Amino acid sequence: MPLSLQSALLSKLRSIVMLLLLPVSSIAHEMTPTYPVFKTSFMEGISITTLNIFNKRKDVSYYEIGVFTKEWESVSFVSQYTVIPMEYLDTISFDVYVSNLSLDSVEYICSVSQIQVGATVSSKICSRVK
């Protein structure tokens, strides 16, 4: 194999390795806690947990919230937001209320970035309920 071809292949390989080593969090958002716990709310028959989202993405202005079972079926919930408007580097705290009747089936609380026009990467973050 000619030296110039080896050099070109080595250069491509280095580029691919560098892309793989980039931290994924630099292109995603954060949602904490990772393992939220529901507690009794002030309303009878309703439980509550509080989460925080940090927007690390300049191209995203909205995050949609969802609550799901282990089989990824949607669970009814109430929150002050179902779609959270956010600026770049903002942090938002929000409560999720779930009926005690469906609380045992709740497995995940997820946030999905809603991309502005022209962006190609989206992100989904899920916290697993304890």
Description:
The protein has one domain (25-128): Immunoglobulin-like. It has 1 helix and 9 strands; from the N terminus they run H-E-E-E-E-E-E-E-E-E. It has one helix at 3-21; strands at 30-32, 39-40, 46-54, 60-68, 78-79, 83-85, 91-99, 108-115, 124-128.
Give the helices and strands, then pairings.
Elements lengths: L2 H19 L8 E3 L6 E2 L5 E9 L5 E9 L9 E2 L3 E3 L5 E9 L8 E8 L8 E5 L2
Antiparallel strand pairs: 1-3, 2-3, 3-7, 4-6, 4-8, 5-7, 8-9
Concise account of the structure shown:
The protein has 130 residues and is mainly beta.
List keywords for this structure.
single chain; 130 residues; mainly beta; Immunoglobulin-like; five-stranded antiparallel beta sheet; four-stranded antiparallel beta sheet; 15% helix; 38% strand
Find the structural class using helix and strand composition: mainly beta
Form type: globular
In helices, the fraction of residues equals 10-25%
Strand content: 35-45%
CATH architecture: Sandwich
Instruction: Using the coordinates shown, work out and report the CATH topology.
Output: Immunoglobulin-like
User: Between the first and last Cα atoms, what is the distance in angstroms?
Assistant: 57 Å
The whole-number mean of residue pLDDT values reads 82
* Estimated radius of gyration: 20 Å
> What's the CATH H-level superfamily name?
Immunoglobulins
CATH class reads: Mainly Beta
Largest sheet: 5 strands, antiparallel
How many separate domains make up the residues?
1
In sequence order, what are the helices and strands, one letter per element?
HEEEEEEEEE
Low-confidence stretches: 15-26
Extended strand count: 9
